[in-house]
Amino acid sequence: MRYLPIGELADKARVRASALRYWEERGLLPGARREGGRRVWPATTVRRVALIKMAQRAGFTLAEITQLLAEDTTPSATRQWRDMATRKLPELDRHIAQTQALRQAVADCLECGCMKFDQCVLLDNHRRGALTANTQRPCDYLALSMRSGNARRHSETIS
Q1: What is the reported pTM?
Q2: Each residue of 39-74: pLDDT tens digit?
Q3: Helix axis angle, 75-112 relative to 138-148, nearest 10°?
Q4: Where are the chain's structural domains?
Q5: Quick check: 59 and 87 in contact, CB under 8 A?
Q6: Residues 103, 92, 47, CA angle at the centre, nearest 5°?
Q7: Which CATH number is associated with domain 3-70?
Q8: β-strands 38-42, 3-5: how paired?
Q9: What is the DSSP secondary structure assignment for residue 124, as one 8-state letter?
Q10: CA distances for 132 relative to 27, 76, 142, angstroms
Q11: What angle (nearest 5°) sits at the alpha carbon of residue 138, between those of residues 135 and 142?
């Protein structure tokens, strides 16, 4: 079996060596072997690190990841993992929806072309729903709002 020193494992897994040491301390990684005073892990640890990183990006806590990585493959452990993953899905769906809304807001701003961030009505989520079919561009709505005295500056809307 091939073993990787901590620096090589960190490079292959694209993490810092300090993260590997921390995850080892927390029990996410098996204890490293010592060769010549240096920590070394089996090359298969790269896959485990990839799983840890994916689980973190998905929003799992380190404690949850520790449970997910437990060597226990009994039906109750498998059921526990499925329950944790099932509970995480709605959270991921909310995150995806928020990210898609942000992407649409950026696309709308680019399409509008006004680039007046201190006045752009698109930055005010409360006003987004007020755009009507009669106003072709958000800036048109802003102009109408300013005439009626209803426009607020961006700095007022983010507080």
Answers
A1: 0.62
A2: 899 999 999 999 999 999 999 999 999 888 886 677
A3: 70
A4: 3-70, 91-157
A5: no
A6: 110
A7: 1.10.1660.10
A8: antiparallel
A9: -
A10: 56, 54, 12
A11: 90
